[in-house]
Amino acid sequence: MNTVNIFADSRVKIGRIEPALFGAFVEHLGRCVYTGIYEPGHPAADEDGFRTDVLRLVKGLNIPLVRYPGGNFVSGYNWLDGIGPKADRPTRLDLAWKTTESNQFGLDEFVKWCAKAQTSPMMAVNLGTGTPQDAASLVEYCNHPGGSYYSDLRKANGAADPYGIKTWCLGNEMDGPWQICGMSAQDYADKALAAAKMMRYVDPSIKLVACGSSGMEMPSFPEWDRAVLDTLYEEVDYISMHRYYWQEGGSDADFFASYRDMNEFIQMIKAASDYIRAKHRSKKVMPISFDEWNVWYQNQQGRADWSTEPHILEDNYSLKDALVFAGMMNTLINNCDRVKIACLAQLVNVIAPIFTEKSGGSFKQSTYYPFQFMANHAKGNAVSHIIVCEAMDAKQGAVNSVSSSISFDEGSGELAVFLVNYNDAAAALTMELRGFGDLKPLESAEMSGKLDARNSFEAPDAVAPYACGAPVVKGQNVSAELAPLSYTMFRFGGKK
Ligand code: AHR
User: How far is the CA of 355 from the centre of ligand 1 (A)?
Assistant: First the structure.
């Protein structure tokens, strides 16, 4: 049996875990909106056409914010098409995904859906075909109290009170050649600066996210981030990161080590923004909005055929994918001193933890559970810790075969430990956990089994967590066993 030793002290904190670290993403793509969150006529649809079975599953994830409406979609989207009487809304071709967009769901529906899902919107503005004026008008529509053209239009459309949307993305992946009107770093920075100014003239309280590199493989990385931040450093509140992993050839260890690769990417973006901080003699440390991340089999992606609810990007996740996914979540938690927002991309049907059938049911994918555990229980501060375990031999080098994160909420006294054992052998775990009060075991849950097991309508619980044996606690020393190829959460009651 392998051994895993962890040492942590409550006084050595990484940083506060912002609830926004557990955000998600809804794009007009495939069946995320249509037949996902919105399906009038579905037996479970409410008076607004929102699927209540999906709302219930979304609420279980405890998501504080949802990015909308794209993604690549936003770079060709005119938000005015999606407001007002539904019968008058135009049908448009969405060039990003080769879909026909009915515009039956738009901004006002999304804000209403967010309220029902107990979450809040994070909006992206179109900096592809859109102009700074379009972006400012959108802020006016959403956040201005009234007495102007767009704020009165919102009122006329049924929303008397301003939406007060706080966080805004200045475009999406504008470094990508696939992006509608993708551009050079300097062209983007100049356009984003103009948009930022106008949006802030309308509402000075908003927070802005600049587009960072959409991947480490981009030829423009990290020069893009340097150039964009050189222009925008004092004007924006976050730099964005996006990252997806999938297995295409390569060993399991290569795929499992994605959590380490993601960490590398974060360190490089930190370095690029810290260089600009030094250059500008700025006091501000630039936070990261990791506003798209997931496992995504990009080799199987496809654009649609101008249909309205195309089955595209509908990955069905295995236990193996969930283990990689959970490692990525550990990386986000372990970098929470810099990563203040993160959005799981996406929420329903499209590379998503929730899957639906048109006119039919819905089920939780394997990735639903690690997200649910962490979003509900990783509270307070992330705790720095030392982990000593077997290494796995991956293309990234020798990488710990166990990924871990620890959170401690001083208010409630609750301590949570999240572990992914990427080894196909069980491991004897010992933890020395200093200064966390009474380590009374509260909950111990695990996911393991066949790596290729997947949930489906026929077998919705093929991959699901189960209660595992409580750890043995002796003072500040804890011991337990980790199952082979498993995800485990231990929660302790702390001092209360
Ligand atoms: O989430 C799917 C797509 O991935 C988004 O539209 C885009 O921003 C990214 O490339």
Answer: 18
Average pLDDT over residues 197-211: 98
Residue 412 shares a structural domain with residue 336: no
What are the respective helix, strand and coil percentages of the chain, to the nearest 5? 30, 30, 45
332, 362, 377 — which closes off a domain? Answer: 377
Kindly report the protein residue whose alpha carbon is nearest to atom 3 of ligand 1: 71
CA-wise closest residue to 257 among 397, 447, 404, 448: 397
Q: Residues with Cβ within 6 A of ligand 1? A: 27, 29, 70-72, 172-173, 242, 292, 345-346
**Which atom belonging to ligand 1 lies closest to the Cα atom of 70?**
6
The enclosing domain of 419 has a CATH number of: 2.60.40.1180
pTM of the complete model:
0.97
Whether residues 327 and 429 fall in one domain: no
pLDDT greater than 80 at residue 26: yes
User: Counting atoms of ligand 1 from 1, which one is nearest the CA of 292?
Assistant: 1
Which residues are marked as active site? Answer: 173, 292
Of the three residues 377, 402, 437, the one that is the final residue of a domain is 377
Do 365 and 398 share a domain, yes or no? no
Protein residue with its CA nearest to atom 7 in ligand 1: 71
User: Which residue range forms the structural domain that includes residue 87?
Assistant: 18-377
pLDDT (average), residues 308-317:
95
User: For residue 484, what are the CA distances in angstroms to 288, 443, 446, 470, 488?
Assistant: 33, 20, 11, 17, 11
Whether residue 387 sits in one domain with residue 371: no
The reported pLDDT for the residue numbered 27 is 98
Which tens digits make up the pLDDT trace of 34-77? 999 999 999 999 999 999 999 999 999 999 999 999 999 999 99
6 and 24 share one domain? no
Q: What is the Cα 477 distance to its own chain's centre?
A: 34
Q: Give yes or no for residue 496 having a pLDDT over 50.
A: no
Residue 449 CA: distances (Å) to CA of 107, 235, 250? 42, 49, 22
